[in-house]
Structure formats: C-alpha cells, structure tokens
Specification:
The protein contains five helices and no strands. With 106 residues, the protein is mostly helical. The two termini are 24 Å apart.
Length: 106
Amino acid sequence: MAEAPTATATGAAAPSRDDVRAELERILTDVVGDDLLLDGPLTDETSFDADLQLESIEFVALADQLLATYGEQVDFVGWMAGMQLDEIIGLTVGQVVDFVVSAVEG
C-alpha cells in the first residue's frame, strides 16, 4: 500500500518512502548501470556493499544525484561523515530512504 505524502516545513508534499526508493533505484541505475537490477528490484534490506558492491566514486555520484534531486537539506555526505566504517559497510537502501524522507520532511 502506498504511503500518503506528508507536508514538509515549506508546505510542499514530502515524498513517500516508496517514491524515494523508486528514485534511489533510478539514480543507482544511472550511476552503476543496468546491471544493478539483474538480481531483482531494490528492497530496504539491499546492502550497498554486499549486494550492490558500490565503489567510493559511485557513492560520490550518488551523493551528487541526491543533492540535485532533493536539494541541500539532503546532505548525504554530511550524514555519512557521522558514521563509523562498519556502519558505512553495512548501509542499506532502507537506511538511505529513511534518511532522505527525514531530511526532506525537515
């Protein structure tokens, strides 16, 4: 069931988790290529390291795309800077989706 949008601090409708996950899949397909979806669609449990095997340069491209898509309030680099290495290695799609939704809702 799709989630109802909520209002952001600016009054605009915040994207739902489903919308953010779909946009993240589009961005990752642009960054990594069509091979991304060979193992099926992204889920909240999809790992950036174990499942997607993202390289550091691809994380930079992801950060740029998130900034271009959602604006400065989605500071992916700043968010990741507060993590320990094992947290970054274990990062999942669901965690990024939650971060984006929370950042956009402000």
